[in-house]
Amino acid sequence: MAAGSELFATKGYSSTTLDDITRRAGVSKGLFYQYFPSKEGLVFALQEKASREFAARVSAAAAARADWPGKLDAVVLVCFEHFTGGATHGGSLFQHLPGEIADPRGPDSSGHKAAHQHLVEVIGGLLHAGVAAGAYRIDDVEATALLFFTALHAFVRPLRHDDDSVSDARLVRAAQHLVRGAAGVSSAGVSSAGVPEVGVPTVGVDR
Amino acid sequence: MAAGSELFATKGYSSTTLDDITRRAGVSKGLFYQYFPSKEGLVFALQEKASREFAARVSAAAAARADWPGKLDAVVLVCFEHFTGGATHGGSLFQHLPGEIADPRGPDSSGHKAAHQHLVEVIGGLLHAGVAAGAYRIDDVEATALLFFTALHAFVRPLRHDDDSVSDARLVRAAQHLVRGAAGVSSAGVSSAGVPEVGVPTVGVDR
Amino acid sequence: MAAGSELFATKGYSSTTLDDITRRAGVSKGLFYQYFPSKEGLVFALQEKASREFAARVSAAAAARADWPGKLDAVVLVCFEHFTGGATHGGSLFQHLPGEIADPRGPDSSGHKAAHQHLVEVIGGLLHAGVAAGAYRIDDVEATALLFFTALHAFVRPLRHDDDSVSDARLVRAAQHLVRGAAGVSSAGVSSAGVPEVGVPTVGVDR
Amino acid sequence: MAAGSELFATKGYSSTTLDDITRRAGVSKGLFYQYFPSKEGLVFALQEKASREFAARVSAAAAARADWPGKLDAVVLVCFEHFTGGATHGGSLFQHLPGEIADPRGPDSSGHKAAHQHLVEVIGGLLHAGVAAGAYRIDDVEATALLFFTALHAFVRPLRHDDDSVSDARLVRAAQHLVRGAAGVSSAGVSSAGVPEVGVPTVGVDR
DNA sequence: CATGAATGAGGATTCATTCAT
DNA sequence: CATGAATGAATCCTCATTCAT
Questions:
Q1: I want to staple A111 with a disulfide (CB 3.0 to 4.6 A). Which of A41, A47, D180, D203 is the partner?
Q2: CA A33, C1' F16: Å apart?
Q3: A166 contact residues in B (CB cutoff 8 A)
Q4: CA of B108 vs chain A CAs: smallest distance (Å)
Q5: Beta-carbon contacts of residue A158 (< 8 Å; ≥ 6 apart)
């Protein structure tokens, strides 16, 4: 699974051959097929795992902050790390957006949708709780959660210029601002007081 | 190009063969290679065309509204139509997100990024103008434009549940709300007064 | 051996995997290789067993009849049962005619030929005895025995139409007629007197 | 088709690879798949062709003889040549008896059965005509035709010992005798007078 | 006596691309 | 301007067999 995750992230699904995967994993091709029913099966396994881990991290990050605005910042941050992490950590597979792997089983039966949906629900849960607590003011929680999560895909590297004028730190800040705005949380005053700075990772992010 | 666009949208890039394309177009394979350097070349041509058309529609939609908040609503609407349109209109190719076509030439050389970037710049231009006119209040225009456009991908159908609880109309409204919030435009009072309703398409969208 | 016999008869030799066999037998693959040198080795064992049993049954059936014409009828009947039995009894493997298993070791090294030959010799023995007893009149005993036994393969089911116009009973009768004719035994008069009827199985054969 | 026919006859169906076939034919593998849907498809094509040719030869041989007993001898002779011919002429494929190729589509869907049946019908037609003409005396024409044709498979080489005591000439003679007997044609006196000798091929058959 | 994880050569099939006509 | 026969490298997957436990 590790070999597959890295290779898929590097070369893409269809350019990665079973030979690549098994050679990298140091096992025979036959062994691969004792653990996965097909190349696609590996992707599904990877997606499920990544999805579970990602959702857990998002929940944990939100729970770790006591203040409702801070919860939103934390979620943005976790997403940033996830989408930025690339092959190094397991989450990279989310970058395989629908269409590529869906082929064999008709239009988009991939696990991505399910995974996507799962995260959206986690975020929806947070927003609902915040609204119930009187901390957020959101008209349409479900729709907002979907938009929220989709927007955060802006972090995935290959979507941005290599020599991008928008640095990671700026993007994180803007995303936090956007999310707070959507949640009806006062953003301007508070965030300039230091919150975003706190949330911005000190490693791997340029100022 | 029409044949390719439809087929790619239906079956995905890698599952569509040159035979499929030329058979559908009613021409020989040799002829294909007189107009496109490769299968990938067709994708690039399609992307460029779609990108140009999409950008033009976005610009036109924004220009058609005199009020700055309305411009934002209009852009959201155009994106909704674009991402929702599927195979029927040329824009569908944007749904082929990076990774699938990038294969041959190393990590992500696809034209998608460029196209994506192009649209982001168009939106960035609008935001800049709005800020300059004193209508929008945005800290980081570039980052916000990127987030803005990325969020709108929430419209693409295969990302949502088939039996999705979030209807198109709700999603459009929430997106308009989100965007207005990010632009510092008063959204709550005004939009509930009727603005989003105006923008909501009367055909193909359920209430 | 039972698992192999059934599976070979059902799915054919090459489509049956060692996994199938050992799973069906409820043992490990390792254990298989302690009893048989190879997959092919199982076939040989099966063939030898079936051949021995078949030959024994043929001999016994012939011995059980005192009259020379009746011996011929009895042999035909045993062959009918054998070739018709399918997977249920061990003889089915004979249906794997040469070519399929011969592969690995050059043209036709299969045990089938030997088995075939064995039966031919048994039949040849009967014919010789009959000729010596003055009961049969056959010019070329060896050749006739070979033809005799080969002809009886007409019983194997998959060689006949599913909705075959030729019923089992008719085929048995015709075979007995043919064999008697080849042995120079008066067939018309005698058989109509009841002999073939006696031999026809009362179960599993339609009139 | 020629390459396939020869290789299948030599090495068997499953041991013959597409590489073998295309290399022998001097074409690329891709080209193969423009003419045949699969490896199995080649077999079907071969069988149909062989079946047609064989049936034509059998009919022609029967028609060439004016006397009814001679027609039977001629058919036997054609079958002898066919089953003996091996890879050299196209008919060899009949030796691929059911079971080997049938795999993918459930028990025995191969074209062999149909081909077999076709020949049986040709022979049945001859017997019927002979009976109608008062030349043959056969109780059950269909069953006899089936037995007749099946018996003639005794000619196929790999069914016989390499150092076979039964020579080709003897086998042909015995087969003619058998067939005549089954058709109620006086065989003993006449055939020993010289008829079989006439029919025995002068080339490729040992005395 | 028994297991089953591990192997890896080998096979059928696909498909973007070329080029003689 | 157009064809489509021909290519062949590359891919996913299978399965008989081994051997450490």
A1: A47
A2: 16
A3: 140, 142-143, 146
A4: 7
A5: A95, B98, B99, B102, B107, B108, B113
Q: How far is CA C48 from CA B199, C110, C111, C112, C126, in A?
A: 84, 11, 8, 9, 21
Cβ distance A154 to B154 less than 8 Å, yes or no, reads no
Contact C96, C43 (CB under 8 A): yes
DSSP chain B: -HHHHHHHHHH-TTT--HHHHHHHHT--HHHHHHH-SSHHHHHHHHHHHHHHHHHHHHHHHHHH--SHHHHHHHHHHHHHHHHHHGGGSGGGGGGS-TTTTTGGGSTT--HHHHHHHHHHHHHHHHHHHHHHTTS---S-HHHHHHHHHHHHGGG-GGGS-TT-SS-HHHHHHHHHHHHHHHTT---HHHHHTTHHHHHS-SSS---
C-alpha dist (Å) from residue C16 to A36, B55, B192, C39: 22, 59, 69, 10
Q: Does D179 touch chain C (CB under 8 A)?
A: no
Task: State what percent of residues in chain C have pLDDT above 70.
Answer: 71
Quote the CA–CA distance of C102 and D13 in Å, as a whole number: 10
D83: enclosing H helix or E strand: helix D68-85
Is the per-residue pLDDT at D22 higher than 80?
yes
Nearest residue to nucleotide E7 when comparing alpha carbons to its C1'? Answer: A28
Q: When comparing pLDDT for B165 and D27, which is higher?
A: D27
Long-range contacts of D28-34 (CB under 8 A, 24+ apart): none
Q: Of A103, A166, A182, which is closest to B181 when you measure between CB atoms?
A: A182
Total-model pTM: 0.76
| Chain E bases near protein Cβ (<7 Å) | 1-20
D107 contacts in chain C (CB < 8 Å): 10-11, 158
Return the structure tokens found at B70. Answer: 């309305």
- Average pLDDT over chain C, rounded to whole? 77
Cβ contact C18 with chain F strand, < 7 A: yes
Contact, C106 CB vs strand F, < 7 Å: no
Query: Which ranges constitute the DSSP H helices of C66-167?
Result: 68-84, 111-132, 141-152
> What are the chain D neighbours of C113 within 8 Å (beta carbons)?
158-161
10-residue stretch averages of pLDDT, chain B, 207 residues long: 89 89 94 93 88 90 94 93 62 43 40 71 94 94 92 78 72 93 72 40 38
D38 Cβ contacts chain E strand, under 7 Å: yes
* H or E, element range at D124: helix D111-132
pLDDT band at D180 (very low <50, low <70, confident <90, very high): very high
pLDDT tens per residue across span A47-82:
888 888 888 999 999 999 999 999 999 999 999 888
More confident call, B42 vs D159: B42
Please report, for residues A14, B10, B102, the alpha-carbon distance to residue B7 in angstroms, rounded to integers and kept in the order given. Answer: 18, 5, 18
Q: Which residues of D touch C11 (CB under 8 A)?
A: 103, 107
Q: Is residue C34 classed exposed, middle or buried when 0-12, 13-18 and 19+ CB atoms within 10 A define those classes? A: exposed
pLDDT digits (tens, 9 = 90+) for D59-103: 999 999 999 999 999 999 998 888 876 544 443 444 444 444 443
Interval A97-112: pLDDT, tens: 444 444 333 334 455 5
Determine contact: D159 vs chain C, CB below 8 A: yes
Nucleotide F7 C1' to residue C58 CA (A): 58
Q: Which nucleotides of F are covered by protein (CB under 7 A)?
A: 1-20
Which of D11, D140, D168 is most worth mutating to test chain C (most C CB atoms within 10 A of its CB)?
D140
C160/D151 CB distance under 8 A: no
Contact check, Cβ <8 Å, A177/B139: yes
Distance of residue D64 Cα from the nearest chain C Cα, in angstroms: 25
The neighbour count for residue B41, using CB atoms within 10 Å, is: 13
